[in-house]
Each structure stands twice: as structure tokens, then as C-alpha cells.
Specification:
This protein is mainly alpha-helical and 659 residues long. The chain is 61% helix and 4% strand.
């Protein structure tokens, strides 16, 4: 039987905790995996807007999201859920039994999934209440919470539904207008109707079973539930994000996290606090700057060390133990949240030259990140995600601080090159290979590792030599086009003609650097057709060497016997030995050849005049330029010469002929 929301509200107003617990337990069971969203209604509204757009040829109003809150507020179920959220927020501000408080917070967490009904949850009082229950104390809490709490309790003491309706009305308008957001990516929509059944997402892997929950302290469970509600509200409501920044919730959260790090106390709510810290820094740029000024990089690096139980060797070397078990999913998820927050504040320093103190901090972080790349996790997907976030931060760190990735102990290395430990570089190479094979969201998933390997190869000679042996080994197969090869080289060459400009540029840049930015070598491995895009962008279409060649060492590019034998027969455009084609003009007379040439020129001119194609030529600077301008200049000169010949006053050829 579906719980009656009005009955729940009446029980809350009567402060009957036992009845409230029973009713909310039933309500939570009913909607534990549901998201309140009338998909049928939304589809009808979308179709109606599309028809109006086609009819009027203009869109008077474009909503920010799939929901249009100004028309959704007349939904009776939505109004009831908003009222339920309002009275629950009043209810939890009083003295409740731990079990009752937990079930109330669980209900609020379910309600906070619906961005349309967040109005009662985005007030200062609600944010303060949730933060307080989550173990976060804000500097402004004492100033604001007391007045709001007295006003809130006055509604509860009225003991009528109308009093709570007044409380809802005071916040509903602001919440309805400003709480536009997107559905949390932890859930997928399935089905249709008044609510949508959800499937567990990867972020829910940390959800504890009911038996494990019973073993934890009720107080800690309530803190976790409150933090989860706060995370949902912050994520879904721009208004809540702005108020959280103004109310300085970050300061209380940061203080709580630092206290747990410095005391090294096991805190089951640490993950939720880290998630909230990530959301605040991701959604509010000023909070990223604030956390950076609060030495966020060094503190979060210490948190990483604590989660991974890091043991240090000499210098910036983290000792690894191959016999240690994989880290658990709980620990790996905390590490991932720390890495995401670190990226939020570290990427701001990417373009800056760090001073000596900051460089030491970033080198310390880079050494820990190297350890993150090499450790094993409980689950391959978890390890892939952890490595992805690690690569993101590495690509955001100042390049000069990544030198700590190579000079580590070589004795225990699985992969060596020129006396250098290449375990980290090899792991990055395997990571790139996996992302290439998946072929999904390449700009987001692949470009960070491509950029990281490119910049590392540009400044680290051993890294470039190792990657070149793995990606561009000595060329033997000269019968296959580079883009048709199944090796790493072939996969990267295929990306050089990708529709996404960033992906295309990153793939070409990596191969170009591995060729030491030598044009002829680059064309040799990729084919001129694939290389033309990068060469045109750099002004190297005329084949001249790049001025950046002198920054590389002078190692030679040795050709294989197979390549030397077929070199004269390789088509430079396709990069392979082509089959001999019959001469299309064989058997034609000279007059027929001239006629065919004139016909071809006529077709090109027609296509050019109709702007279907634009003939291009290579300038002296090695860049592409429209050929029409050059041809037009030549034509004008010829016309001027002809005019001079026809002018009787000139000393040209006509006068000589007349003589």
C-alpha cells in the first residue's frame, strides 16, 4: 500500500515519533530507488513546444532544463512533496530519537533527488540544519541559525497543516525558480509515469548493506545521511550553491576534514565530506581559489597518503609492495574524491611558473600520484577510474614537477629503458591503449593522457625513446596504410583525421614529438595525407624542418631492410606501396591529351566559381593559401602585357611588328 503523504505530514505536526518512523519507513521503501519525474508529461510539453516552434519559427522561451518549473508547481504530488520536505526540516531541528532522525534524513535524501521540489531545502536555515547534522559548523551558523530556528519551531508548535503551508510558501517561489539542475549521474532513468525506477550507478558501490549499517553508530549514520542530502541539494540547485558560498560552509567543512586528517581518526562519513568538498569546488570558482589559498594541495596530498598508507623511500620515491592486497572499493572511492578535488584546485596552476615552495609541494604530489597509477584496486573498473583521475591531475601539474616520475629505484622495475624505471610510463601507455580501444568520449577520456605523454616526451629523452619503441617501432610493413594498421601507431593515425579538432591535434602532436618534430620522419610513419593537417597548422607543408628540432638529441632513425627495399615505390601520400595502376592516357594522341586537360581545367574552374571547391596552394612560408588569388595575380599580369602590346603609343611588340 502506497504511503499517504498527508498522513505523514499530520503525524509530523503531531510530533508522534513512533508513527512518523513507521510511515517514513514505508515511504522510503516504496521510493528508495525512484526519482519523482513525470516523463510522460515532460514529453508532451517538449512535443508541444516543438510544434509551437515550427509554427511560429521562433522560440519565445527556452527552458534551462527538461523541467519547466513555472508550470510544474500546479502538480498536486509535487506540492505535497514540497510540504513534506518543509515539515521534515522543521521536525529534524528538534530533539529526535536517532532512529527517527535517520529515517527522516533518508526521506529528505529521496526528496532532494527532484530538482523541482528543492524550494524548502535551499533556505539558509535548511542548509545550516543539514550542515550541522552532518558535523559541519559554519562561522555564520550561530548568527543565522538561532533566528531561523525560532521561526521554524513556531510553525511546528502551531500543530496545523496551514502553518507548514505558510512555511512552504515563504521559500517555494525562490526554490522553484532557481533550483534548475540536472539529474545526478549516479542514476539512470527507466520506465515512465509519475516516478521513474532507478538502477544503481557506480557511485552507489559505497552503499552499505543493512547488516553493516546496523553495526555502525547511529550518530555517524545520521551524519552521513545529512551530508548526502546536502550533496544532492548543492548539486541540483544553483541557488543552494550560491548560498553555501555566501554562508561560508566551505570553511566548516574544510576544518572538519583537516581535523580528521591530522588526528588520523577513522571516519565513516569522510567520503560524504569529500564528495561535498568536490561539489563546492567544482561548482563555485571562488571556492577553488579559497581552497588553494588554504594550502589545499598539501593537505589533500596528506589525505591521499593516509588513505593509501604511503611509505617513503629516498627523495620523492614512494615504496611499493607487490605483495600488498588491492585497496578496497571504499578506500578507492575516497581516493577518487580527493583526486577530483585536487584537480579542481591544481589545474589553476598549470599555466603558472611555481616558486620553490610550490614546486616542492607539486613534486611531492606527483610522487604520490605515481603510486596511485601503479597500485591495484578491488575491481578493474575502479582501477580504471582511479587511473583516469590520476592522469587528469598529472596533466594539470606544472611540467617541471613531473621529473620525479622517472628517477626512482630501478632494481625492482618491471620495465626498464636506458637504466631508467619505466613502470609509470608503461602504465600510462597501457592506460592510453585501453582508452583507444573503448573509443568512447575521446575528448574527455583520451586527450589528458595524450597531452601528458606528449609533454613528457618533449622534455624527457628516455620517455620519448621508450614510447617511440612501443608506438613507432622500425617500419617493416610497407604494404598497409598507416590508418589501417591495428597497432598503437595505426590507432593514433586514425585519430589524426578525427572530426573532433582537439582529439585530432593531440594524437598528431604525440606522433610528431615522437618523430622529434622532423617532417620527413613524420610523413614516413603517417603518410602525407594524414600528416597534412598538422603540417598546415605549423606552416611545414613545404617540407622544411621545424625550428624546434634542435631541442632533441641527435639519435638516428634506422630503417629496416624491408623499408629500404620498398622506399622508392612508397606513395608518400598514402604511406604504403601502391599497386601499379594502368596509364589512363595510354593510346591517346597528343591532341586528345590536350583536349582532356582542357576539359579537366574547365571542370575545376566551374566547381571553383560555384564555390563547391576552393583550389589551394602552398606558399613560400609552408602554409596553405587559396590558389585563386595566385592565379588571378598571374592573369592580371598577362592582361597588362597584352594591353601594352595592343597600345600604339607603347614601345612594345606591336610597334616592332608594324615596322
Amino acid at each position: 500500500m502506497m504511503p499517504d503523504v498527508k498522513q505523514i505530514i499530520d503525524s509530523i505536526l503531531q510530533r508522534d515519533q513512533d508513527t512518523v518512523q513507521v510511515l517514513l519507513d514505508s515511504y522510503n521503501t516504496q521510493y528508495a530507488d525512484c526519482f519523482f519525474y513525470n516523463t510522460d508529461k515532460q514529453e508532451r510539453k517538449k512535443q508541444r513546444r516543438l510544434e509551437e516552434f515550427k509554427r511560429n519559427k521562433v522560440r519565445d522561451h527556452a527552458p534551462d532544463s527538461d523541467s519547466d518549473t513555472d508550470s510544474d508547481n500546479d502538480e498536486p504530488d509535487l506540492l505535497l512533496r514540497q510540504r513534506l520536505a518543509a515539515v521534515l526540516l522543521c521536525f529534524i531541528s528538534g530533539q529526535l530519537q536517532p532512529a527517527v532522525l535517520r529515517v527522516c534524513l533518508h526521506t529528505l535524501r529521496i526528496l532532494s533527488r527532484d530538482r523541482r521540489g528543492l524550494g524548502p531545502m535551499v533556505t539558509d536555515c535548511a542548509l545550516f540544519t543539514l550542515a550541522y547534522l552532518g558535523g559541519i559548523r559554519s562561522p555564520q551558523e550561530a548568527e543565522v541559525a538561532e533566528d531561523d530556528s525560532d521561526r521554524t519551531h513556531s510553525h511546528i508548535n502551531r500543530g496545523t497543516l496551514s502553518g507548514c503551508e505558510e512555511a512552504v510558501t515563504s521559500v517555494q517561489v525562490a526554490g522553484a525558480v532557481t533550483s534548475n539542475g540536472s539529474v545526478h549521474h549516479c542514476y539512470e532513468w527507466k520506465g515512465a509515469g509519475d516516478h521513474v525506477v532507478l538502477t544503481r550507478g557506480k557511485k552507489d558501490t559505497r552503499e552499505e548493506s543493512s547488516e553493516e549499517e546496523d553495526k555502525e553508530e547511529d550518530g555517524e549514520l545520521c551524519k552521513k545521511e545529512a551530508l548526502k542530502v546536502l550533496c544532492n541539494v548543492i548539486y541540483n540547485s544553483p541557488r543552494a550553491q550560491e548560498r553555501a558560498s555566501t554562508l561560508r560552509l566551505l570553511e566548516g567543512l574544510w576544518g572538519s576534514l583537516k581535523q580528521g586528517i591530522w588526528t588520523r581518526e577513522a571516519n565513516c562519513g569522510q567520503f560524504c565530506k569529500l564528495r561535498l568538498l568536490f561539489l563546492l569546488t567544482a561548482l563555485r570558482p571562488e571556492l577553488r581559489l579559497q581552497l588553494q589559498q588554504e594550502h589545499g594541495v598539501s593537505v589533500l596530498t596528506e589525505a591521499l597518503e593516509q588513505c593509501l598508507a604511503v611509505k617513503w623511500g629516498e627523495g620523492y620515491e614512494v615504496l611499493s609492495d607487490s605483495t600488498s592486497p588491492p585497496i578496497s572499493k571504499e578506500v578507492s572511492q575516497e581516493v577518487i574524491e580527493i583526486l577530483k578535488t585536487l584537480f579542481n584546485i591544481a589545474h589553476m596552476c598549470n599555466r603558472q611558473e611555481p616558486d620553490e615552495e610550490d614546486a616542492a609541494v607539486f613534486r611531492h604530489l606527483a610522487a604520490v600520484l605515481r603510486h596511485c597509477l601503479l597500485i591495484s584496486c578491488d575491481g578493474e573498473d575502479t582501477r580504471e577510474e582511479l587511473q583516469g583521475h590520476t592522469v587528469n591531475i598529472m596533466s594539470a601539474l606544472p611540467l617541471m614537477c613531473l621529473d620525479v616520475l622517472l628517477p626512482v629505484n630501478v632494481d625492482q622495475a618491471s620495465h626498464k629503458w636506458e637504466g631508467v624505471n619505466m613502470d609509470c610510463v608503461h602504465t600510462l601507455l597501457l592506460f592510453m591503449d585501453r582508452r583507444l580501444h573503448k573509443g568512447q568520449r575521446l575528448k574527455e577520456k583520451l586527450t589528458p593522457v595524450l597531452n601528458l605523454l606528449t609533454e613528457s616526451s618533449r622534455v624527457h629523452r628516455q620517455t620519448r625513446h621508450y614510447l617511440r619503441q612501443k608506438i613507432l617501432p622500425p617500419l617493416r610493413d610497407v604494404a598497409t596504410r598507416p590508418e589501417q594498421d591495428n597497432t598503437l601507431r595505426g590507432q593514433l593515425v586514425r585519430l589524426m583525421t578525427h572530426v573532433d579538432t582537439d582529439v585530432k591535434h593531440c594524437a598528431a602532436e604525440l606522433l610528431f614529438v615522437l618523430c622529434k618534430e622532423n617532417v620527413s620522419r613524420f610523413v614516413k610513419y603517417t603518410g602525407y595525407g594524414n600528416a597534412a593537417g598538422l603540417l598546415a597548422a605549423r606552416g611545414l607543408l613545404n617540407g622544411r624542418s621545424n625550428s624546434g628540432d634542435n631541442q632533441y638529441s641527435s639519435d638516428s632513425d634506422s630503417d629496416t631492410e624491408e623499408y629500404r627495399e620498398a622506399k622508392s615505390r612508397i606513395n608518400l601520400v598514402t604511406g604504403r606501396v601502391e599497386l601499379e595502376q594502368p596509364d589512363p592516357m595510354e593510346g591517346m594522341t597528343e591532341e586528345e591529351k590536350e583536349e582532356e586537360a582542357r576539359y579537366l581545367i574547365s571542370m575545376i574552374n566551374r566547381l571553383s566559381q560555384e564555390q563547391i571547391i576552393q583550389p589551394m596552394g602552398v606558399t613560400a612560408e609552408g602554409r596553405l593559401a587559396p590558389l585563386w588569388g595566385q592565379m588571378r595575380g598571374s592573369t592580371l599580369e598577362e592582361e597588362e602585357d597584352e594591353e601594352e602590346d595592343l597600345d600604339p603609343m607603347s614601345n612594345g611588340r606591336k610597334d616592332k611588328q608594324m615596322e
